[in-house]
């Protein structure tokens, strides 16, 4: 994770605590322009990553840490992804974000989908779901990241293991391990059971009437392609785009290709 | 000293290629390995051993709950106690314990324990546990909810035992609008409650506050010392000194005619327990949230080796098992009693893949040549 921290510091981006109702949320912000709410995956919250930086060249990037993840305190008031959707609906109102684009990957994609179902037309103008969990498709189960050791997990998340090896130290120090553990605890709170999904989400996706990009790593070994296809089939204005030579962690593994697709979609 | 025979009921017939082929004896070890024909003989053999404990003068037998594991084939300790209830007449029968945090319907435990307490005329001891990490996977219970569920389920069960009127129960994890448990337990207000701990300070405090019995699980002797000291300190904060039987020490023990013979016979079984039965993937044992961040940091900082990487010598040196002649075992247990301070010994005398005859011999030597040395301070 050294590269995370270095990038964080070199960028000068510091987290600020934002009070949203009764909950305190740590938010990273950078760039200017059209607002882009970036919802993090289950791991690595609280870090200003290269893809944030690239997106910040064109957009005002607002990247909150869900309670319990990254630098946000855990909250008893937020113990389901529905609570997260309401939290971010409040945050959008509070920050008075207009013409908002919402981008969520993996766990963040689930949160983004729930948020878009909740607020529908009024608050979001475009939605991007990247290798999102959230749907229950029994014949295409999501890989159990909880049960994997660190090496297995990296192999599952990245198609190109040399990229994974570059991003993550082979022997992390105890603080790095604890940061991972904290994120994983928060992920377990939201996604242990029902496993990585809201069984009711699929029947509500018709409420997402904004243009939606479903972006998926060609070789995603965590969330099977059927999930991308199901999202694309149930969201009325959705288009599915595959990022070649990428695994689950598309935005970290192929940031240029992924962001090109995102910019193209937003520009249309 | 109270002497309890603690039986784990392991499944000893693992395939020859177990070490090479499987990285765990729990959760995902295929159940095709379990042979029901052998199961018939095995369960009945283990029940014979538990029944024999009464003849040998043990105060109690204790059995536990584990799911999807060759380490222990008792998904329900209450069934084992039910099987022993009418085959024994005075020995106490301890469920150590029911994994109440795994239950969506904890009142079933309140009912079963109360039934058993009636059938046995008040011989039941009710242990409660959270269930271990891999059981959070096996029972689809988020490890992050395990502690809260344990406490709520406990409060509900105890209230159900103590209440004389129907009541409504609403808590974060449980909602029961009509709680009215029949039968009532024979022991009033309820059977004794024992709770094993693994070093969490919150657990020590909680057990001390409720004046229950606190029991250790597999750990090095010096670590158990810190747990028992922590428990005594927590009791002191509550304004009392714990009774001897409120502190329980659990340990596998093998006694033979001589030290040499004890090691010769016992070694393979002790190794089987730690190297095979307790072999488990770290992620199965400690799913995220099962340990608090503080406890997790302590665990990785301790540098403790996984059980299956401990040599036999390390197992003995660190105090994970006691092996020797009766004289040696007496001496070691006396020293442990003096150092740790416990009045309740939970002896695992069927260890790992130990066969029946050897188990019975171990039980006899322990009961006849070790227990009497502690007779002076028997409860």
Mean pLDDT of chain A: 93
The percentage helix of chain B is 40-55%
Rounded to an integer in angstroms, the radius of gyration calculated over CA atoms of chain B is 20 Å
- Give the proportion of residues in helices of chain A: 25-40%
Tell me how many strands of chain A there are: 8
Distance between the termini of chain A: 36 Å
> Quick one: which chains have the greatest interface?
A-B, 17 and 20 residues
Largest beta-sheet details of chain A: 8 strands, mixed
Using the alpha-carbon principal axes, give the shape of chain A.
Answer: globular
- Total count of helical runs of at least 4 residues of chain B: 14
H/I helix tally of chain A: 10
- In terms of structural class, how would the helical and strand content of chain B be classed? alpha/beta
Q: How large is the radius of gyration of chain A?
A: 17 Å
Low-confidence stretches of chain A: 1-10
What percent strand of chain B?
Answer: 15-25%
Distance between the termini of chain B: 6 Å
Strands side by side in the biggest sheet of chain A: 1-2-4-3-5-6-7-8
Give the quaternary arrangement of the chains. Answer: heterodimer
User: What shape does the CA trace of chain B take?
Assistant: globular
Would you give an account of this structure?
The complex is a heterodimer of chains A (268) and B (379). With 268 residues, chain A is α/β, with parallel strands linked by helices. Chain A has ten helices and eight strands. Chain A has helices at residues 2-11, 50-56, 81-94, 107-119, 150-157, 161-167, 174-191, 225-234, 250-253, 255-267; strands spanning 16-20, 23-30, 34-39, 59-64, 100-105, 124-130, 212-217, 238-243. Chain A has an eight-stranded mixed β-sheet, with helices on both faces. In chain A, helix 3 (81-94) packs across helix 4 (107-119). Chain A is globular, with a radius of gyration of 17 Å. Chain A starts with a helix and ends with a helix. The model of chain A is unreliable at 1-10 (pLDDT under 50). With 379 residues, chain B is of the alpha/beta class. Chain B is built from 14 helices and eleven strands. Chain B has an eight-stranded parallel β-barrel, surrounded by seven helices. In chain B, strands 5-6 form a two-stranded antiparallel sheet. In chain B, strand 5 (167-170) and strand 6 (175-179) form a beta hairpin. The longest helix of chain B is centred in the first third of the chain and has 21 residues, at 36-56. At the A-B interface, helix 7 of A face helix 10 and helix 11 of B.
